[in-house]
Amino acid sequence: MEFTERCHAFISASFYKKLRDGHGDRGLAIFAHATRCYGGQRGSRMAQKAIALGLPLTFETYCALGEWNYSDSYLKAAPENRESIISIAPDYCSHVFDCPWSAQYKDMGLSDGAILYCRFLDTSIAHAFNPELDFRVLQTINEADRCVFVSKNANLAGKVEKRQEYVLPFEYHCAHIYHTFSGIAKSVLKTAGAEIAASVLSEFGTAYEREMAEKLTEYANTDFNLIYLGVE
To answer: Between the CA atoms of 146, 38, 136 and 92, what dihedral angle is there, to the nearest 10 degrees?
Structure first.
């Protein structure tokens, strides 16, 4: 039983399909808002960790406190040249040529959902971490041959090593995105939103393992706005 990037993407893509097909433009607005809320919670947790550690809310800290690593299963199958660093100063610019999230949406016939998801996700994380940082997504692999990310005036000295003690498991990330999207859907659509959330959970259990779906429910009382791992 392994939670991966694909599991994570399956959850948001499933919400996207049900919201789009069942509720049209209103459903798309719910999906976009849920994506921004989810990204904002991630960025806020990163900022809380930085402040607790006495670190400035800079691009260097942002890179150091990223909450996820690629899963082992993805790395075993991923192309070697999946990312290229174009510059580190003054602007930090990277190109990404392979993305398991994009691949999962595409396999589900939902690349339009990946476009909407990626339009808001990373910018929401960065803005919640520090709204004064100028982080830009110039294009994504959902519409072009690569993603292009630019951190304006980052002025990094080199590649920043991620603080592994603050990386969170994909089980947590999958639970986080499920409960955030579920909560927003229920808040706006009431009973219809609850039905969508239950259906996504059921389909997740079918696509992967029932025990994995049950794991997601164990996080029902988790406050995803707050730091998950304690900072000494």
So the answer is: -80
